[in-house]
Amino acid sequence: MKLPKPYYEKAGITIYHGDCREVLLGIKPNLLVTDPPYGVGLDYGTHDDSPEIYWEWFLPILEVLKSSAPLVMTHRQEAVKYIHGWDHLCVWNKPMAF
C-alpha cells in the first residue's frame, strides 16, 4: 500500500491524515492518538455517520487500532460498555457529547 504524504513530519514525529484501516497497513507506529467521534450525525453526502450506526463501523476500527500500537483515545462515557480487553482505559465524562 502506498502511504499518503505525511500531514506533518518533524523530529521523528509523523502524522498522517487518512483512513486508519489503510494507513496502519503501511506503518509500524509507536503510539496512536485519536479523539472520535467526528461529526456524527452530519450529512456528508458520501456515507452514513449517524449515531445509530456509529458503533457498527467504529468497533472494528478499534480492533485494528488496539492491535497496532499503544493507543490514547478520548471518548464519551458510553464507550465503556463497548470497549473490552484493554490494559488501561480512561473515560472523559463529557455529558453534552452526542
What are the main properties of this structure?
4 strands, 2 helices, 19% helix, alpha+beta
Protein described:
The chain has a two-stranded antiparallel sheet with strand order 1-2. Strands 3-4 form a two-stranded parallel ribbon. The mean pLDDT is 75. The longest helix has 15 residues. With 98 residues, it is α+β, with helices and mostly antiparallel strands. The chain has two helices and four strands.
Fraction of helical residues = 10-25%
Q: What is the string of helix and strand elements?
A: EEHEHE
What spatial order of strands do you see in the largest sheet?
1-2
Q: What class do helices, strands and sheet pairing give?
A: alpha+beta
Low-confidence stretches: none
Question: Globular, elongated, flat, extended or rod-shaped: what is the shape?
Answer: globular
Helices, by number, come to 2
Describe the biggest sheet?
A: 2 strands, antiparallel
